[in-house]
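Support request, priority: normal
Reporter: lab tech (M.K.)
Component: structure prediction queue

Hi team, I submitted a job for ATP synthase subunit from Pedobacter changchengzhani yesterday, and the status page still shows it as pending. I've pasted the exact input below so you can check whether something in the sequence is tripping the parser. The sequence length should be 96 residues. Please let me know if I need to resubmit or if it's stuck on your end.
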Amino acid sequence: MEDQKHKSGDFSRIILAKEKQKLNALNEKKKSEWFGLGMFGMVGWSITVPTFLGTLGGIWLDKNYPQTFSWTITCLIVGLVTGCVIAWNWVIKENK
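Reply from support: The job had stalled in the queue. We restarted it manually and it finished. Here are the results:
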């Protein structure tokens, strides 16, 4: 009889642990959907803003300091690469 009570207690603890795990998973799913949308926006803006600023800087340099190459294209590429590095670092940081 004592052995059956012990098994019953273990079974109850297992069921309770599984129930908590399922409830946490449901909460995580709701959170992860909004988190995913937020991350999508953050990645987009962290690439867009440096690219746009680099392009504006390149246009200004082309007008004030003309060269044989295009400052606009050069600064656009530098801004794009910078934005990608920022986004990549942010995604890595958030996944930890």
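The chain has two helices and no strands. The chain has a mean pLDDT of 83. Let us know if anything else looks off. Ticket resolved.
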